[in-house]
């Protein structure tokens, strides 16, 4: 059994980016940025989501024991399935960017996004996905 002592998972935050929402910090809103309709439509403030970098840094919140866990050198790849319904597009993109940036490429067979009867149109062309098989399945 081969073991990788450097930890198979990519660290959550290797960069020192600065900006709103970086390192999981709150996004400061001005009085004019407060809009309750953004919360009603998405369950979160889409204005904030649209203004946070897609490849933002995050703190490493793993349990201390997990940070030193050793993984097999060879792990099987997997399909990642993301169901969504009327989701804000930037939050979906941020999820996919996080998966791609924090998971070794050899472990990702494909990313399947399942649209569960959304009323909104979805965008399918983000250049970061060109190296990955991303399937957008519309369940209608």
UniProtKB/TrEMBL annotation:
Keywords assigned by UniProt, alphabetized: Disulfide bond
Keyword Secreted: no
GO CC annotations on file: Golgi apparatus
Sample GO molecular function, one term: polypeptide N-acetylgalactosaminyltransferase activity
Residue ranges constituting the Glycosyltransferase 2-like domain according to the UniProt record: 79-131
Cross-referenced Pfam families: Glycos_transf_2 (PF00535)
InterPro entries (UniProt xref): Glyco_trans_2-like, Nucleotide-diphossugar_trans
Keyword match Iron-sulfur: no
Gene Ontology process terms (BP): protein O-linked glycosylation
Full protein name: Glycosyltransferase 2-like domain-containing protein
Protein source organism: Bos mutus
Taxonomic lineage: Eukaryota, Metazoa, Chordata, Craniata, Vertebrata
